[in-house]
RNA sequence: GCGGAUGUGGCGGAAUUGGUAGACGCGCUAGACUUAGGAUCUAGUUCUUUCGGGAGUGGGGGUUCGAGUCCCUUCAUCCGCACCA
């Protein structure tokens, strides 16, 4: 109620308008039609010009249309694109649709409407909305991930991934036919050789654990499972299920993905999140002999130096050796524990069980550094998915092991004398009553029997010495471990890219030939999933079954690719979007890549950006693209929030039930006083701002300008509804002044106006490069206020200002430009040059401070000698008052800045 | 717990290398025009004051002629990750 009322009133202006009224609706319609008709923003592949590639993260075209968050990033890139074009660059600035996705499929299940029809409708709506904002995209380059002409090449890339292996020595992906099969494997026969090859492919087909919602009969992505283990859509508990899945070996590229982060201009936070996700840690893998067995238990540790402090071992409940390790006597307890751990999902293991739990397996291992017998336990604080799924526990120097050992009264011997000044803490650690993970010098860390002795060494030395000893004695090796895991690359859904894969009745898997692409989706009448966790494609009988020339029968892959697939490479397709011979021309790719500026939401900090970097590196290794990294500069726009209201107890109140009285807020029904808070826009809070409403009420230029004026692009900021009025007033002022013949004169330009104009050209240029749009707009307001006050301007100055305004408020700028007698688009004009000499001053108004406090101001010529300045300032009446005519202690004069007198 | 960021008027936010804190905008106050004003224009607007000043950028301390900015410390909020061995 609060949010809407004003917009609606202003959106129905008096019909009785003067001819000078800023009729934004007419103006914007006129220029949008003009741009469309003249293809103003079409990008030619003119290799003679310097290029600039500015990219938005393309949207998923949802049924609810744009929200105000979309235009934020899009306006920013549009301003940069228009600016760069005016600066003489050949600018690539495309838009498209990431249009595969669940909502269209869900809608299909409910209504039987083909997803392609829903998608088409939504794309049309998005395109209309985006065009209504005056964003200058080259629509001839529009791409859509669901278009067979597009996903043909997504499938083509998948085939490349399948046919690539990673050469760890060269740290480079190579064609699979360059893979040499070792002689001893060759000798075992063709099946072994085949298995060897399959194990090397970047894409492979294998069993994988997935989340399955028995209610929706659908597999869920991890992010669709809530913290309590329920499906976010229906609230039912999801299950673990083993299904054959396509996986991609992204961990092989971990080092390359880490290295590449060093050379890109990205927000530090995003780089850190990616590093964190890859999770590289260095240490050693150590083999422990299991007592009374020829099995060894391998662990990964970052602290091989603490081996002397290892007093027990822990394996995860899913560890493959657990059954063998468990003795008869302990079997019941271990089985019960494993069953119980299985009930807890991986998600709530961390949350619910702050208390450590576990049971003894009944078996012992031998600590390789001193051959001491140590018990092997099973506990769910050790995860199967990380390292080897087993650890050596060093309770005195690892907090988790310390907690566990304390809970189960296991010994906590100290082997590292802490280098801390805290005497009490040090005592505690030495006694095994506290845990120390920092540096220090080793004690009790020598064994005559095995010959290892690190007593007295520091952490760094101890690690090096121990690894060397382990390797010499063949008990372990230096090792690097990564958190990142193989990428589960298939979904049991209809509305995604089909895999170009056939599973034959004899077990062979073949991929389609390039010339058989695209493999299209079959049209279906029903989109319900298959009964056993299969994709709806399992019901497409006609499509599904194939027979080869020899009569062998096969089934097509019924899984489809995840939504990430299309977005992994779309920036490449924009380069050559209608090419039906190859994904893009190499020549064009060399010219346009890399992307110079990529703007989008921080929610894609890890997955999309990591996945697409991975694909890009594979394509680079195969010689398909010319750069190692796809995105040179990345920038995250901050989320736009909205005001919302809550009661004293914190209950949220829908905005249509809120009433304002004298700056306070009340519930319209209960009369409760309410607190104004800032929250994400949501349907339930009824605080969603619809860009269409703003465009209707104030115009697209106002929406663009306001989104940029709101604050720094990367900041999270609330939409303050009244703020739109501020920029609307500004545009109104610009219109009324610059489209009024009576404001123009033919004489010399006023010096002050000229100076401000050049300052504006300079500042706006700098600010656009730095993406500081809010301060650029403020500078344009300052200039406008000045000329309105002066009342007159020359056509030349007005033309320069119009061009500065152009990237921000393109419709109004075109109108002014046209009024000034130009009959080509302002988008094609040159950015005005500023003259540095115009900005020079010959005198400066110095603030004079006495003891650090501003006391008065004085105008002084810049070429005045120091001595004279001193005399002049000290003889000022206010200065005399403070100095009593005495010589000051100090006299500081910073040229062009400030004068400070210390008395 | 770890990692990243942010704290400036009533509000959104400005402030290259330390150099006039609060640009620009909203809101508010007063006035002008007006039948009217949620239109437009003009002036004012950090707080406080005994009208000399005084205080002031989350809190405390430090460096400096001078600190929103640099250093130490502390608090709060937001985001991401979270038993990663």
Highlighted features:
RNA-binding; globular; six-stranded mixed β-sheet; Rossmann fold; 903 residues; 5 domains; Isoleucyl-tRNA Synthetase, Domain 1; seven-stranded mixed β-sheet; Isoleucyl-tRNA Synthetase, domain 2; alpha+beta
Describe the model.
- Helix content is 35%, strand content 19%.
- By secondary structure, the protein is of the alpha+beta class.
- The protein has five domains: 1-23 and 690-838, Isoleucyl-tRNA Synthetase, Domain 1 (Orthogonal Bundle); 24-155 and 565-637, Rossmann fold (3-Layer(aba) Sandwich); 281-481, Alpha-Beta Complex (Isoleucyl-tRNA Synthetase, domain 2); 640-679, no CATH class; 841-902, Ubiquitin-like (UB roll) (Roll).
- The strands form nine sheets. Strands 10, 11, 12, 13, 14, 15 and 18 form a seven-stranded mixed beta sheet that branches.
- Strand 29 and strand 30 form a beta hairpin.
- Helix 2 packs across helix 28 (810-819).
- The longest helix is centred in the last third of the chain and has 19 residues, at 751-769.
- The chain starts with a helix and ends with a strand.
Task: Give a nutshell description of this structure.
With 903 residues, this protein is α+β, with helices and mostly antiparallel strands. The protein has 5 domains: 1-23 and 690-838, Isoleucyl-tRNA Synthetase, Domain 1 (Orthogonal Bundle); 24-155 and 565-637, Rossmann fold; 281-481, Valyl/Leucyl/Isoleucyl-tRNA synthetase, editing domain (Isoleucyl-tRNA Synthetase, domain 2, Alpha-Beta Complex); 640-679, no CATH class; 841-902, Ubiquitin-like (UB roll), CATH 3.10.20.590.
């Amino acid at each position: 109620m609060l949010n809407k009322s004003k917009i609606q009133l202003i959106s129905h202006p008096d019909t009785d308008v003067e001819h000078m009224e800023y009729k934004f609706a007419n103006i914007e319609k006129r220029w949008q039609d003009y741009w469309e008709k003249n293809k103003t923003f079409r990008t030619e592949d003119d290799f003679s010009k310097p290029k600039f590639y500015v990219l938005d993260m393309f949207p998923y075209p949802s049924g609810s249309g744009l929200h105000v968050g979309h235009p934020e990033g899009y306006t920013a890139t549009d301003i940069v694109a228009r600016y760069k074009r005016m600066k003489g660059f050949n600018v690539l600035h495309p838009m498209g649709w990431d249009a595969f996705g669940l909502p269209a499929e869900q809608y299909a299940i409910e209504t039987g409407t083909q997803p392609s029809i829903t998608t088409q409708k939504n794309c049309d709506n998005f395109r209309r909305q985006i065009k209504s904002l005056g964003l200058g995209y080259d629509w001839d380059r529009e791409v859509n991930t669901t278009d067979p002409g597009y996903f043909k090449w997504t499938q083509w890339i998948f085939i490349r991934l399948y046919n690539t292996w990673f050469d760890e020595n060269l740290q480079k992906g190579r064609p699979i036919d360059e893979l040499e099969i070792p002689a001893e494997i060759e000798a075992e026969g063709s099946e072994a050789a085949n298995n060897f090859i399959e194990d090397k492919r970047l894409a492979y087909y294998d069993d994988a654990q997935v989340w399955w919602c028995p209610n929706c009969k659908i597999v869920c992505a991890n992010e669709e499972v809530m913290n309590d283990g329920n499906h976010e859509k229906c609230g039912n508990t999801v299950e673990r299920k083993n299904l054959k899945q396509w996986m991609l070996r992204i961990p092989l590229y971990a080092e390359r993905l880490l290295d590449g982060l060093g050379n890109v201009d990205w927000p530090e936070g995003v780089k850190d999140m990616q590093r964190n996700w890859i999770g590289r840690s260095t240490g050693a893998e150590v083999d422990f002999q299991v007592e009374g067995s020829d099995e060894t238990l391998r662990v990964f540790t970052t602290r091989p130096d603490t081996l002397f402090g290892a007093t027990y071992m822990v394996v995860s409940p899913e560890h493959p050796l657990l059954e063998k390790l468990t003795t008869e006597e302990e079997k019941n307890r271990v089985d019960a524990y494993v069953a119980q751990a299985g009930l807890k999902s991986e998600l709530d293991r961390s949350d619910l069980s702050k208390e450590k739990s576990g049971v003894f397996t009944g078996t012992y291992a031998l600590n390789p550094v001193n051959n001491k017998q140590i018990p092997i336990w099973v506990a769910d604080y050790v995860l199967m998915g990380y390292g080897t799924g087993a650890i050596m526990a060093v309770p005195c120097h690892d907090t988790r092991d310390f907690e566990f050992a304390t809970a189960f009264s296991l010994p906590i011997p100290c082997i590292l004398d802490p280098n801390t000044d805290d005497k009490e803490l040090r005592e505690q650690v030495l006694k095994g009553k506290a845990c120390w993970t920092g540096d220090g010098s080793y004690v009790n860390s020598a064994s005559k029997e095995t010959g290892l002795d690190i007593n007295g060494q520091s952490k760094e030395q101890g690690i090096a010495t121990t690894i060397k000893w382990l390797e010499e004695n063949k008990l372990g090796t230096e090792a690097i471990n990564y958190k990142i895991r193989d990428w589960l690359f298939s979904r049991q859904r209809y509305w995604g890219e089909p895999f170009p894969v056939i599973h034959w009745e004899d077990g062979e898997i073949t991929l389609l030939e390039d010339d058989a692409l695209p493999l299209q989706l079959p049209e279906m009448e029903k989109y319900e999933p298959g009964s056993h966790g299969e994709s709806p494609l399992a019901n497409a009988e006609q499509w599904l079954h194939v027979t080869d020339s020899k009569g062998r029968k096969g089934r097509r892959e019924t899984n489809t690719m995840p939504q990430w697939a299309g977005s992994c490479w779309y920036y490449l397709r924009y380069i050559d979007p209608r090419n039906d011979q190859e994904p893009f021309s190499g020549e064009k790719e060399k010219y346009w890549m890399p992307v110079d500026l990529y703007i989008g939401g921080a929610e894609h900090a890890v997955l999309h950006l990591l996945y697409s970097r991975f694909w890009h590196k594979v394509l680079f290794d195969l010689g398909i693209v010319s750069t190692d990294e796809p995105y040179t500069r990345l920038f995250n726009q901050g989320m736009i929030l909205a005001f919302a209201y809550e009661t004293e107890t914190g209950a949220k109140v829908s905005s249509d039930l809120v009433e304002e009285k004298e700056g306070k807020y009340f519930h319209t029904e209960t009369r409760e006083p309410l607190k104004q808070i800032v929250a994400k826009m949501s349907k339930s809070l009824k605080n969603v701002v619809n860009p269409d409403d703003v465009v209707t009420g104030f115009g697209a230029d106002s929406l663009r300008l306001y989104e940029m004026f709101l604050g720094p692009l990367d900041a999270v900021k609330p939409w303050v509804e009244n703020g739109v009025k501020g920029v609307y007033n500004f545009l109104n002022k610009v219109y009324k002044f610059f489209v009024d013949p009576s404001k123009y004169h033919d004489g010399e330009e006023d010096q002050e106006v000229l100076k401000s104009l050049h300052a504006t050209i300079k500042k706006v240029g700098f600010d656009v490069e730095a993406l500081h749009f809010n301060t650029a707009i403020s500078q344009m307001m300052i200039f406008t206020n000045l000329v309105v006050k002066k009342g007159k301007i020359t056509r030349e100055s007005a033309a320069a200002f119009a061009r500065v305004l152009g990237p921000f408020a393109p419709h109004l700028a075109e109108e002014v430009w046209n009024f000034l007698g130009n009959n080509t688009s302002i988008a094609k004009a040159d950015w005005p040059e500023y003259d540095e000499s115009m900005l020079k001053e010959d005198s400066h108004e110095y603030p004079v401070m006495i003891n650090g406090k501003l006391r008065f101001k004085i105008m002084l010529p810049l070429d005045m000698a120091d001595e004279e300045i001193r005399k002049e300032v000290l003889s000022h009446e206010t200065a005399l008052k403070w100095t009593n005519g005495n010589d000051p202690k100090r006299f500081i004069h910073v040229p062009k800045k400030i004068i400070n007198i210390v008395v």
